[in-house]
Fold these 3 entries.
Entry 1:
Amino acid sequence: MPPDETAPPEDPRVRAARTKRERTRRALLESADALFGTRGWNQTRVEDVAAAAGVSPATAYNHFPTKHALIGTVYAPLLRPLALSAEQDRRTGRPVVDALSEQVRALSRTSARHRALTAALALAMLDYTARTTAPPDPADQGDPRNLAPMTTAIQGLIEDGQRSGELHPFPPAAELSGVVINLLLVRSLNRPDETADQTAEMLLTVMFGAVKPELLARPGVGGRPFSGDD
């Protein structure tokens, strides 16, 4: 939309304040990315991120009220390309097995490429779940499970497949997508040397074993239908 030429010019002080705030937020996210990726969840404090970004802890907390909000915001951009890909597949009617297979492999590659950051996110989500003892509340924008919604793309594709009859109707998409992502996150913690293909093989076996078990009869490599690239 073209700018409104009748609107009064923006106050330079307002523009400068906004620019400064955006610069500070960017510095905090970059510092958090580096620290969570090297020190991990438990050894990184918001105060450490603030110091690395060159701002006060009060400023950091003004942008991100909790460490959980910070890690969720750091990780979210890694998921956006996957969400866009899933949306495109759903819009164009791509076969759901192909779309889900690619989505799970892409998630596994992302997790492997950013393994330390994924492990930090996994611990943040576990900690937040223990604190709330409840599923994510969509209204809670401090919940890393909402800020980095790892289940969304897979859940939508499973829902489409169950609705069309391509996938078995049970378990429900919301529960199955949660199982798949929880398995991915746990493996980021306890399988540090696992390759992306190995992770994807396990996730696909669990997922399709539930809603498309006939795929497990494919010969694959050594009787493993999801081993390596399809």
Entry 2:
Amino acid sequence: MLFKDRRFAGQVLAKKLAAYANRPDVLVLGLPRGGVPVAFEVAKALNAPLDVLVVRKLGVPDQEELAMGAIASGGVRILNEYIISLVKISDEVIARVTVQEERELERRERLYRPNCPLRDLQGRTVILVDDGLATGATMWAAVVAVQKQQPAQIVIAVPVSAPETCQELEAEVNEIVCVSTPNPFYSVGLWYEDFPQTTDKEVGDLLAKAAKNGQPISIGM
């Protein structure tokens, strides 16, 4: 399936999540930046609050698209030991990349959620939304971050995913919704007609619009 853009993909995805509509326990968390336009449409359709969970991929130096791990808000870090061993990445390199990405994660936290109070996710149904899953490293980190707060349910929802990634994550959450799992997969952007980089301004505008429309930004991680 080829999606027109992220907003359209979110509308399609929302239809698959109709069972979660109008439930007071549901919270939608978009993974910035590309996941936020998708999550906005999901939250709007479900009449649920929208917020962000900031995650950052730990890219292999000189091969940044290859993830050796990821970090998420709340001090979470996961590592892909297979990639680290395969590429022979030293502990020093891992530490350096982690520090760099932590700085960017903190910058985005300050930008997207200034003065936003933290709120416990315990007992909630949390829907994690991204624009797609390749290796799934950032989504893994997001799941771990949310698990720490003991929610009632974790749902992963994406328009498109590599088949093996969707299968691997399925065992870690209560439900996973992958609208399309093409094989061969290649990359997330291949399955969108229009796939520009989402900007910080767009993320901020969508969060503000969600709050104005009665979808309050209600959570912090």
Entry 3:
Amino acid sequence: MAELVFFSGTMDCGKSTLALQMDYNHSARGRGGILFSRNDRAGDSMISSRLGLRTPAVEVTDTTDFWNEVSGRRRTGLPVDYLICDEAQFYSADQVEQLARVVDELCVDVFAFGITSDFRTRLFPGSQRLIELADRMEVLQVRALCWCGRRATHNARTVDGVMVVEGDQVVVGDVGKHAPAAGSPAAADTVTEEPLFAVDAVETVPVVGYETLCRRHYMRRVTAHQAESISAADDSPADLDVCAVHPRIP
């Protein structure tokens, strides 16, 4: 029986890596598949992992119809036994319903990978519909970590290093580098008295970034950069609005 499976997790937990591994496993057994993605970090028509893996994929747009994609290829004689759907949080609710129809009526396995909620902790439309329709959900077991060392449970957006909770749901930002844990030797090497974002006479464009935080630091709006600033300003442990500066992994 074909299944619609939703693999979810925060950033940095290996969703795209698993998507590429699953494609390899199924294709190695002679199954035909199609890879889809949307807004991948490597650009259009690509599934990429932070480990450096990348594979060409079909770029999903607002007009993509998964039923037509699968049935059209089958009419030309190409086998389609499974779909790998990365960055599924960016799909529309209608597109998720198309995926469910592909599973039920064409007996094609659909493996969807995506973030559940946005930087405001609100469900993405695609993720919400997947939760409602999927045969099963699997939360990835690789734990992304907050700067403090706790398990990261939320995706935070920053603008010039400051966490924000308002704005458009989808905004491209830097997710390639994360600041080291406050109080660590690496953090000590990176903290200077110079401002992180220099202000020139010419108007600068705000730098949008993303990082993963534990619930405590998400609720208290404490990013890695802010924690470093507090640690650098005071040699004693940070105040009650911040966890102890030493990394702690449960």
